[in-house]
Design brief:
Blueprint: H1 7-27, H2 31-51, E1 65-67, E2 72-82, E3 88-97, E4 104-106, E5 111-119, H3 131-134, E6 137-144, E7 148-156, E8 162-165, E9 172-173, E10 178-183, E11 186-192, E12 197-198, E13 205-206, E14 212-215
Antiparallel strand pairs: 1-14, 2-3, 2-13, 3-11, 4-10, 5-6, 5-9, 6-7, 7-11, 8-10, 12-14
Helix pairs in contact: 1-2
Length: 217
């Protein structure tokens, strides 16, 4: 199953690969060179297909739990001062996604979207300390009665050049459902209330839509 954001790219890649295969077959007489080009083209298609995969996942909804919004590796768990929206101290959890991870973003909790803003910016490597403030990104704030407000930020990286955000201000969203997509490697930051109990640590690998990353006591 593939994400809808990849349909056009997958189609275009397939057509290009098919054209390369035909051209190589009829225009290159050196057999080993022909094989190398065709295999390389096939590998490119496989990489594009695996990047846009969208595995079906069943979220066990729990109003006292926050689930991982994406697949990836936890790179930051610390108390910070959140400058853009809250302007106070929060617990930050950052999850880095390599190009090999599933890149679907899922809602970490159910609630209403209070804030949704796109910021143009740079393309520093996603694990850079300043990427959360300087890179192209979207900032989304969800609110429910249990946690209050929780902020998550989709951040573009060196390779990622397009962020897709489905969160619309004022809309009601459901934990685990599709919240967007980040194309070709990136990071997601979450900013949680200080009372939140964290269930992950740096270097943990998490699975979006399934794994609990924090809860309320």
């Amino acid at each position: 199953m593939f994400h809808k954001e990849g349909y056009l790219i997958i189609l275009n890649t397939f057509l290009i690969i098919a054209a390369i295969a035909v051209l190589v077959e009829y225009n290159i007489s050196i057999e080993w060179l022909k094989i190398i080009i065709q295999v390389t083209a096939l590998i490119l298609l496989i990489l594009v297909l695996q990047f846009f995969r969208n595995p079906k996942r069943t979220t066990s909804k729990n109003e006292k739990h926050l689930i991982a919004p994406v697949d990836g590796k936890v790179v930051i768990v610390e108390e910070v001062f959140e400058k853009e929206y809250f302007k106070d101290k929060r617990i930050q959890i950052s999850i880095f996604m390599s190009p090999l991870n599933v890149h679907v973003t899922r809602y970490t909790m159910s609630g209403i979207v209070n804030f949704s803003k796109y910021h143009p910016g740079k393309y520093l490597v996603a694990w850079h300390p300043k990427s959360s403030e300087l890179n192209e990104r979207t900032t989304i704030v969800l609110e429910n009665k249990t946690f209050g407000e929780v902020l998550y930020r989709q951040i573009a990286g060196t390779v990622a050049r397009r962020i897709v955000n489905y969160a619309v201000k004022g809309s009601q969203v459901v934990q685990g459902e599709d919240a967007g997509f980040i194309k070709f490697g990136s990071r997601v930051d979450l900013f949680l209330p200080l009372k939140t109990q964290i269930d992950v640590k740096v270097d943990d690998v998490v699975k979006g839509g399934i794994q609990t990353i924090a809860h309320l006591p």
